[in-house]
Specification:
About 35% of the residues lie in helices and about 15% in strands. By secondary structure, it is of the alpha/beta class. Helix 7 packs across helix 8. The protein is globular, with a radius of gyration of 19 Å.
Length: about 260
């Protein structure tokens, strides 16, 4: 075990991630990147860095329930997607895509357009990348930061293996991994694990088997499948997590195809 990280591990980490996100390609060409301990870490550092440069933060009431708690110390508003047009100029929006509505939302393009026109920026949380078969262009300069992690794809939330890309990332994220910094410190265990996983397993490695199990479970239980394989909706529109119910079946499929 290393007592600290190695800069060569970082070079590999950056390369492996940048290759792995090919279906959400574009953001890997932004000027900066950094290791983050899951996407939470990226968001917390980035909004702390940006808060005195913008008017207000926004998140959506249909999205990740932890965003309002991250935003508590700052001027912010939690809005309905129907109120995108009310986002003020020079604001900063945190949003996930695919979203907690179970898919890449139909209003995402409207959000991008409004933010461009209002001189606002988006933190794009791609935690659910690979849990659907979607493609997305993440190159737009309206995306102040774009972040990924291994938590959802491989149910590795405890590993805290993430990456953030942007043109102006918080120095609290970039300096610890800088080549010029004499002591690189980062989560070396997460980096080492990701450097083994990323080149070996594509982002839809679990989803390619999980999707059919989700559809089967939904059919048998009179549920409507979300695009994200972990979720379903009942007839009244309530979202249900079915991961626990189908995990063993998915694992059997994975074992059979190893």
């Amino acid at each position: 075990h290393k007592n600290k990280g190695d800069y060569n591990d970082l070079i590999l980490y950056h390369k492996h991630w940048s290759d792995w996100i090919y279906d959400f390609s574009g953001c890997q060409y932004k000027k900066q990147w950094a290791v983050c301990n899951g996407i939470h870490d990226g968001i917390i550092n980035q909004i702390s860095y940006k808060h005195n440069k913008i008017n207000k933060f926004y998140a959506f009431d249909t999205d990740y329930k932890f965003y309002p708690f991250i935003l508590l110390p700052y001027k912010h508003e939690i809005i309905s997607p129907s109120n995108i047009h009310k986002i003020e100029s020079n604001s900063y929006v945190i949003v996930s895509q695919p979203n907690h509505e179970g898919k890449i939302t139909t209003w995402f393009e409207d959000l991008i357009s409004h933010c461009i026109n209002s001189n606002s920026f988006i933190f794009l949380d791609c935690a659910f990348y690979g849990t659907t078969f979607d493609k997305l262009d993440t190159s737009n300069s309206v995306f102040d930061a774009v972040a990924f992690s291994l938590s959802k794809n491989f149910l590795l939330g405890g590993l805290r293996a993430g990456i953030i890309y942007g043109d102006d990332i918080s120095p609290t994220l970039t300096i610890p991994i800088s080549e010029k910094f004499t002591y690189n410190y980062f989560n070396s265990h997460a980096v080492a694990a990701a450097n083994c996983i990323l080149p070996k397993y594509k982002h839809t490695y679990v989803t390619q088997y999980a999707k059919s199990r989700q559809l089967e479970y939904c059919y048998l239980n009179n549920l409507i499948p979300a695009d994200i394989w972990m979720w379903a909706f009942d007839k009244t529109g309530n979202k249900i997590c079915i991961t626990h119910e189908i995990t063993n079946l998915i694992q059997d499929d994975l074992n059979h195809h190893i």
